């Protein structure tokens, strides 16, 4: 997991996506155009899940439901493939990404999960602000996540809900 500041534009976004080796992105529909404009500059990216705040219209150009268009298919260059999947060139370049609505994540297959992770395995990459140069990725292990979450968890009962007010990229 690599949380990215949604305010990032070309340079910072490209650096963090490429430096982390991201192959998949979950992108809010309002930020999708920024990703598409980077095109071939995102060298590892293969799949984009588009979140539209309820997933009714997964792309800003989607017509309203009931207007002769599958509201789960994304209208990108190259046309849709049906079933909510669409492939097409990005806004500038020859990259071909697979675009899927965020709701498609609810329909995952029943394949066995990969082997369990170890405490020392990386859980996320958090990037520094880059005030003195390009931002640097900091590996955040499952052990660190456990150590960070344990003290506040001791204050909660099983019925409590813990609400995190800061964005995930703000560490």
Précis, in short:
The protein has three helices and seven strands. The chain is α/β, with parallel strands linked by helices.
What can you tell me about this protein's structure?
Strand 3 (80-82) and strand 4 form a beta hairpin. This protein is an alpha/beta fold. The protein has a 5-stranded mixed sheet, with no helix packed on it. A two-stranded antiparallel sheet has the order 6-7. The protein has helices at 10-20, 32-38, 142-153; strands at 24-28, 47-51, 80-82, 85-89, 96-101, 122-127, 137-141. Helix content is 18%, strand content 20%.
Question: What keywords describe this structure?
Answer:
two-stranded antiparallel ribbon, globular, 7 strands, 3 helices
Please identify the structural class as seen in this structure.
Answer: alpha/beta
Tally of contiguous helical segments? 3
Low-confidence stretches: 55-94
Report the radius of gyration as a whole number of Å. Answer: 18 Å
Order of helices and strands: HEHEEEEEEH
Strand order of the largest sheet: 1-2-5-4-3
Which strand-content bin applies to the residues? 15-25%
Biggest β-sheet strands, sense, barrel: 5 strands, mixed
Q: Give the helix level as a range of percent.
A: 10-25%
What would the principal axes of the Cα set say about the shape?
globular
Number of strands: 7
Q: pLDDT average, as an integer?
A: 74
Give the termini separation.
14 Å
